[in-house]
Specification:
Oligomer: single chain
Structural class: mainly alpha
Radius of gyration: 35 Å
Largest sheet: none
Keywords: Membrane, Transmembrane, Transmembrane helix
Helix content: 55-70%
Distance between the termini: 97 Å
Number of strands: 0
Length: 98
């Protein structure tokens, strides 16, 4: 029974070793470092630079439009005292006079 247990552990080690490239020790670590560095410079860094460039272009386009509207203060809400609700035209004024 203990042989089956040892065999299964050996199979798991073999599978993980093969999944990681089949190299052991320092060579395995060095290959992962090289692969990670290449992935960073080929995919991650260009994507970050493209995103940054697009944000700069958008900021420049927004700054160059001198006729665009910019809200500087919060708008005051409309209380609708005499607004859309029919029959509410002078209700508050009559209540305050009484």
């Amino acid at each position: 029974m203990s042989t089956n247990w040892k065999k299964s552990i050996g199979n798991i080690r073999s599978f993980t070793g093969n999944a990681l490239g089949g190299l052991r020790g320092g060579a395995n670590l060095a290959s992962w470092v090289v692969a990670g560095t290449l992935a960073y410079y080929l995919w991650v860094k260009p994507a970050q630079e493209l995103k940054k460039e697009q944000q700069e272009r958008a900021a420049l386009a927004a700054a160059s439009d001198k006729y665009r509207y910019v809200e500087k203060v919060k708008p005051v809400p409309d209380p609708q005292e005499t607004g859309l609700i029919y029959g509410n035209k002078n209700k508050q004024k009559n209540n305050t006079e009484e």
